[in-house]
Amino acid sequence: FLRTASLSQIPVEDLKDPLPPHWKCYMSPQGRRYYVNTTNNETTWERPSSAPGTPKNSFRHKNSLPINCVTFPSPACMPEQQLLKPSEWSYCDYFWADKKDPQGNGCITGFEVLLQKQLKGKQMQKEMAEFIRERIKIEEEYAKNLSKLSQIPLASQEEGTLGEAWAQLKKSLADEAEVHLKFSSKLQSEVEKPFLTFRENFKKDMKRLDHHIADLRKQMVGRYAAVEKARKALSDRQKELELKTQQLEIKLSNKIEEDIKKARRKSTQAGDDLMRCVDLYNQSQSKWFEEMVTTSLELERLEVERVEMIRQHLCQYTTLRHETDMFNQSTMEPVDQLLQCVDPTKDRETWVRENKTGEIRPVDIEI
Ligand SMILES: *[C@@H]1O[C@H](CO)[C@@H](O)[C@H](O)[C@H]1NC(C)=O
Ligand SMILES: *[C@@H]1O[C@H](CO)[C@@H](O)[C@H](O)[C@H]1NC(C)=O
Ligand SMILES: *[C@@H]1O[C@H](CO)[C@@H](O)[C@H](O)[C@H]1NC(C)=O
Ligand SMILES: *[C@@H]1O[C@H](CO)[C@@H](O)[C@H](O)[C@H]1NC(C)=O
C-alpha cells in the first residue's frame, strides 16, 4: 500500500518569490517539501504565498504532521520528544519513518528495514557455514595426502640411528594426518554445525511479524481516510450552516429558522463523527506504536544473540586451530629427538658388527 502512496512530486522552490514572514520550508522523510509557520506551528504541504490569507489544504493539526498516515509532531515542537531508550541506539527509537526505496520510487517502512537486516544476518551466517565447510575440506584432503605419503616405502631400507630417525619422520606424517583429521571433525561439530542450526522457521516468523505490522499500518491508512472524510463532511455542514445564517440575515422566515436548527444539528453530529473517527485513528496508531516497540526490541534481542553466538564459535575456531599447531608440533618432537641421536660412528659399529665378513687379515705367503 505504501508503494502506491503518492508523495512523489517535489515542488520546485521558486527563489524569486520568497516565503512570507515566519514561514519555513522543511523536507519530509519522503523528500517532499512542506511549510511550517513558526509563530503558530501551522503546517501545510502547499507553499504559502506572500498574499494575505491562510493557505489551503492545511493539516489543521497545528502541532502534528501526518506522513503516510502516521502522525508525527511538527518539526517546530520536536525538542519535547525524548528517546525511549536514551543513548542505547535501540532499534525501537530510530525506525519510525518510512524511507525511500533505493531502487524504484516507492518507499519501504522502517520496520521493513529492520527485517531486511535480520534476513541478511541469517544469510551471512549461512555463508559463514559454507566457508567453514571449505576449510574442513582442505584439512581432510591435507590429512589424506599426509597419510598416503607416510605409507610410501621410499628409503625404508635405511639403517642404524639414521634409519630410526627416518622411520620416525615418516610416522610423524601419519600422526600429523591424525591431528588434521581431528581438527576437521571438530570444525564440523563445533563450528559448522552450530552455524547451520539457525533458528528453524526464522523466515516464516519474520514474514508473520511483517504481515502483522503491515496490517496495523493498513488499518491506520483506512482510519486516516475516514478522518479526512469526516473532516470534509464537517466543513461542508459548517458552510451550509453559514449559508443559512446569511439567508436569515437577508430575509427572516420560520422555514429558514427551522433549516438553521437542522443545519446546526447536522453540524454538531458531523463534529461528533469527526471526534469518533479521530479516536479510532488514535487507537489504531497507538496499537501500531506498541507493536512496533515490542517487535523491534525482539528483533534487537535476536540480533545481539546472533552476533554473540557467531563470535563464540569463531573463537572456538581459533582455539582449535592453535591446538592443531600444538599437537602438530608434538608429532615433530620425537623426530627431532631421534635426529639428535643420529651418530655415524655408532651406526658404523652396529653395521660392522652385523655384517662383518671376517677380521683376520691376510699374511705373506710362506714357502
Ligand atoms: C593432495 O594431493 C593432490 C594430488 O595427489 C593435490 O592435487 C592436492 O592439492 C593435495 N591437497 C592438499 C591439501 O595438499
Ligand atoms: C487523539 O490523540 C490526541 C493525542 O494523543 C489527543 O489529544 C486527542 O484527544 C485524541 N483524540 C481522540 C478523539 O481520542
Ligand atoms: C602443522 O600444520 C600446518 C597446517 O595446518 C602446516 O603448515 C605445518 O607445516 C604443520 N607442521 C608444523 C610442525 O607446524
Ligand atoms: C646386514 O645385517 C643385517 C642383520 O643381520 C641384515 O638384515 C642385512 O641384510 C645385512 N646386509 C647385507 C648387505 O648383507
From TrEMBL:
The keyword Metal-binding does not apply. SUPFAM superfamilies: BAR/IMD domain-like, WW domain. Residues 199-258 form a coiled coil. GO terms for cellular component: clathrin-coated pit; clathrin-coated vesicle; plasma membrane. InterPro entries: AH/BAR_dom_sf, F_BAR_dom, FCH_dom, GAS7_F-BAR, WW_dom, WW_dom_sf. Residues 17-50 form the WW domain. One of its GO terms (biological process) is clathrin coat assembly. Residues 87-347 form the F-BAR domain. It holds the Pfam family WW. Keywords: Coiled coil. This is Growth arrest specific 7.
